[in-house]
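Following up on my earlier thread - several people asked me to post the actual chain instead of describing it. Fair enough. Here it is, all 302 residues.
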Amino acid sequence: MAGVLSRIHRANRPAFHSLTPKQARIGYLMGAEILDLPRAALARVENLQVPGAEGPLAARLYAPSDERLPVLLYLHGGGFTIGSLDTHDSLCRQLALRSGAAVLSLNYRLAPEHRFPAAVDDCWAVMTWLAKAADSYGLDGTRIAVGGDSAGGTLAAVCALHARDIGLKLALQLLITPGTTAHADTASHKLFANGFLLDAASIDWFFNHYISHHHKRDWRFAPLEAEDHSELAPACVVLAECDPLVDEGIAYADLLRANGGQVQLELYRGVTHDFIKMGRAIPEALTALAACGEAIKEAFQA
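Reply from S.P.:
Thanks for posting it. Predicted structure:
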């Protein structure tokens, strides 16, 4: 991991917080899969248009076979401001390949063009649509899960809360290095503020584009703030030790457990935020991908 950080530093790419959102999106796309595994071949990879909260959204369906499969709605990371179907293409292929399930990756609306709660509204709309429409795509609408990394992990956790509230049964919430707290004020935010890939200045840049300060205690941004965490879908929480978000990830897993939830917590030592997308360089990425695949498979079998 130290070697990867050193190479990233030597590449001298500008920090996200020094760029405009458009520049940051281009930069993230250019570098997103350099360390990722090669894109795995799958039986089905289809670009779709799905109904978001305020209009159609791009999505991509991945399936390892043409059978009637359960489906994971996947929400990409990128601080609610950057990221796309293409930045997470390799990761979604790996999740489909290793789980045997279908994966639907969603291009929800991004800030600052679409500020909070636009991304939440899109994810909720597509999750409820998927439960009804899965059968028309040859998928099993009775077995649905949500997942995501970083900001997408936040959105997945929020989707799980909403699913419970509307009576939609999810098989799993897969939360990879999620943000869950309101004000980025845990000890790990201070300890890993600089030099560990996701720095404090970039976190502020992402959040300032996405949400006003007075809204940050809204549970749709900070799921730790929700009033009730009981009767939620089983959770698989994947965390990195050297990540500003690690403390809030542990706190959320603890809170789910304390409220009777079934929680599988995977904490990978010595790695940073976004490590799961570094399978060419970081062995822990392969271990984490295998754990995610197995968690999805077991949840759908249950």
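The two ends are 35 Å apart (CA to CA). That should answer part of your original question.
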